[in-house]
Fold:
Amino acid sequence: FWGFKTLETLPLDELFNLLDRNTLFRLHWGGGSDKKREPGDFDRLVSEEFEPKLAEMRQTVEQEGFLAPKAIYGYFPCRAEGETLIVFDPANFEREIARFSFPRQPGGEKLCLADYFGQTFRDGQPDVLPLQIVTAGKVASEFCERLNKEGDYSRAYFIHGLASSIAEAAADYLHRLIRQELGLEAEQGKRYSWGYPACPDLGEQQKLFELMPITAEIEVGITEAHQLDPEQSTAALVVHHPSAKYYSTLDREALGNSAKPAPEVAVPVAQVPSVDETVTPEEQVLEVVEVAPLLEQAITEPETPPSGEQTPNGTETAPSEEQAPNEEQAITEPETAPSEEQSPSEEQTTPTDNS
Structure:
């Protein structure tokens, strides 16, 4: 179908099955790293406290009503023009209704998300841009606020963390649905969220609200700082091109690798370049990184690349302690950039529309 569709409820059983427990337990519920623990301490914490607590919350969530996951998503006709993706009216392919701009890598392969979309209509048919927005529900924030006012800070903390992880599980659920509806292979169709290296401008999220009635349908708004509200919400686009991959558009040389170390602070990896090409931005984590004095409060790349994410809207995911996805990876920049003839858009294939 063209246009948007609203999912007023999402299946909680499936979302709980899709939960990233490592992220939930270590990041949202304070389990932390094993570095300062005795062997086996975290496993005991999980088995004796976290797993029973999660099971109890699953049993009471419908009765207490502290989660109400919803989603809105859609398929929009589009074509690429340079580093811009032009979106057209689903009812009139000749009428332009929005433009998304994406930065190009200053080095390396000089990638840009727009490259993965067709530049012309083929046989009168445009390319397709899938967009998705999910939320754990406004009730999650309201429930936590009420618990805090009542002084039940501990339960508010755990429900807040669970809501953040449910939002990420909802994003994964919808991503899989989009892949299925477009007839894509299991690993085809990468998901990109605004605020991350491939599309770092959070302001571009505002255009989603011009394309779909997000606030009216799922009660998600956007702040003046371009953050989604409630915070347990995420937005993304899906790139169906088989060559799509994850990359950073940040020029590391411009950061100045000789910056003197500064005090460590926890910052969202949304402000840090990602070099992991095996996981989605929604499969990354909040990491402790350094602040570069020469860029004042700008964030430099840590010595060890971030292995996970805190999304721009407050939801995070964490890697396993045994093997963080990014710890053994690095971007290698070829001596020469690919020619225009090698642009991914030249290999554009529009997926089968099975919807």
Residues 17 and 94 are 43 Å apart (CA to CA).
